[in-house]
């Protein structure tokens, strides 16, 4: 599942000391090519003077939203106050910060406190509407990164259903013929044949007995229980880590990318979180941030620091 995320543009404000960067850049995302929004290594080595002089042009070319950088300190870093009691969401926030810190090669995001922070992560109980179906958003004016609680709570069940369906499909694909053949043979041994008028009822009962007697069925039950007790929530943890990392991209000043593979694409998602096998094996090495995401973030931060 891919979900919509957005930057609340109506709340964008410009810092009074950075009037040069006051206007957010909004450009089409339908015609640009991948290379056009990927800053080169050479561009990332320019001087502060260069970034100040060419800020507007760079913002337009690489789809940057300078007004969204309201939560950054003068050194370009952000301190996050995690205002939720949900343990899994707390883990998702930590993962999201770790994704960016690792890719950027520095500590861009750190966890703060209620008294010491530059932005607040929290949950919103606002209901979705026809005009706003997003599951998370960044609001620069209030310096708040919100996750929609109703979507978050429902997603654990969605992931659980997906994983359980995968397990059932794999089981019946492998054993359906075996179950049918053995059930018919068992009934035939009792003198019950397919020509009998009420054959379907005893066949279903016998097929159920055969199915539950298979060693693989015991494994299936254990796996389904594992989904319910652990893996569905684990999948949701990684899904929302990507979701929150996307919003943190907005915090650093990134508009949406035209490239579907990028974390900053306007619809972001991680199909791995719906896979029983992949979540069970572990997604600890997964990082959704692409080279384009990383280089755009580096450029946005360099321009911000140069202007401050």
What would you note in describing this structure?
Mean pLDDT is 89; it is low at 7-35. The chain has a seven-stranded mixed sheet. The protein has helices at 48-53, 55-61, 87-104, 149-189, 200-213, 215-251, 276-281, 291-307, and strands spanning 3-7, 78-82, 109-111, 119-124, 136-139, 144-148, 267-268. The chain has a domain at 3-148 and 247-270 and 289-307: Collagenase (Catalytic Domain) (3-Layer(aba) Sandwich). The protein is built from eight helices and seven strands; from the N terminus they run βααβαββββαααβαα. The protein is an alpha/beta fold. It is an enzyme of class 3 (hydrolase). Residues 144-266 form the Peptidase M10 metallopeptidase domain. One of its GO terms (molecular function) is zinc ion binding. Its EC number is 3.4.24.-.
Task: Describe the protein's topology.
Layout: E1 3-7, H1 48-53, H2 55-61, E2 78-82, H3 87-104, E3 109-111, E4 119-124, E5 136-139, E6 144-148, H4 149-189, H5 200-213, H6 215-251, E7 267-268, H7 276-281, H8 291-307
Parallel strand pairs: 1-5, 2-3, 2-4, 4-6
Antiparallel strand pairs: 1-7, 5-6
Strand order of the largest sheet: 3-2-4-6-5-1-7
CATH architecture of one domain: 3-Layer(aba) Sandwich
- CATH class label of one domain: Alpha Beta
Low-confidence residue ranges: 7-35
Number of helices: 8
SSE order, one letter for each helix or strand: EHHEHEEEEHHHEHH
Q: Tell me the distance between the termini.
A: 40 Å
| Global mean pLDDT | 89
CATH topology heading of one domain = Collagenase (Catalytic Domain)
- Provide the helix percentage: 40-55%
| Rg value | 26 Å
Task: Estimate what percentage of residues fall within beta strands.
Answer: 5-15%
Largest sheet: 7 strands, mixed
Class per helix and strand makeup: alpha/beta
Q: Quick one: overall form? A: elongated
Strand runs, count: 7
């Amino acid at each position: 599942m891919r979900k919509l995320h957005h930057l609340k543009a109506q709340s964008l404000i410009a810092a009074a000391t950075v009037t040069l960067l006051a206007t957010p850049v909004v450009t089409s995302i339908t015609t640009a090519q991948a290379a056009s929004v990927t800053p080169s290594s050479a561009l990332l080595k320019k001087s502060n003077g260069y970034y100040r002089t060419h800020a507007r042009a760079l913002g337009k070319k690489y789809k940057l939203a300078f007004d969204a950088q309201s939560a950054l300190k003068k050194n370009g870093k952000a301190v996050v106050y995690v205002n939720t009691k949900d343990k899994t969401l707390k883990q998702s926030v930590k993962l999201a910060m770790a994704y960016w810190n690792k890719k950027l090669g520095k500590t861009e995001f750190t966890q703060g406190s209620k008294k010491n922070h530059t932005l607040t992560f929290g949950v919103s109980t606002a209901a979705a509407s026809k005009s706003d179906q997003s599951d998370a958003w960044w609001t620069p004016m209030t310096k708040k990164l919100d996750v929609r609680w109703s979507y978050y709570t429902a997603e654990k069940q969605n992931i659980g259903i997906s994983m359980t369906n995968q397990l059932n499909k794999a089981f019946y694909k492998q054993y359906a013929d075996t179950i049918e053949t053995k059930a018919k043979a068992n009934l035939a041994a009792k003198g019950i044949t397919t020509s009998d008028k009420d054959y379907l009822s005893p066949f279903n009962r016998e097929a159920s007995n055969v199915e539950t007697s298979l060693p693989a069925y015991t494994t299936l039950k254990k796996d389904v229980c594992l989904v319910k007790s652990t893996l569905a929530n684990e999948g949701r943890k990684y899904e929302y880590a990507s979701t929150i990392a996307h919003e943190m991209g907005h915090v650093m000043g990134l508009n949406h990318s035209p490239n579907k593979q990028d974390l900053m694409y306007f619809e972001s998602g991680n199909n791995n979180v719906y896979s029983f096998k992949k979540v069970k094996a572990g997604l600890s090495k997964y990082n959704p941030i692409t080279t384009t995401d990383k280089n755009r973030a580096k450029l946005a931060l360099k321009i911000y620091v140069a202007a401050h």
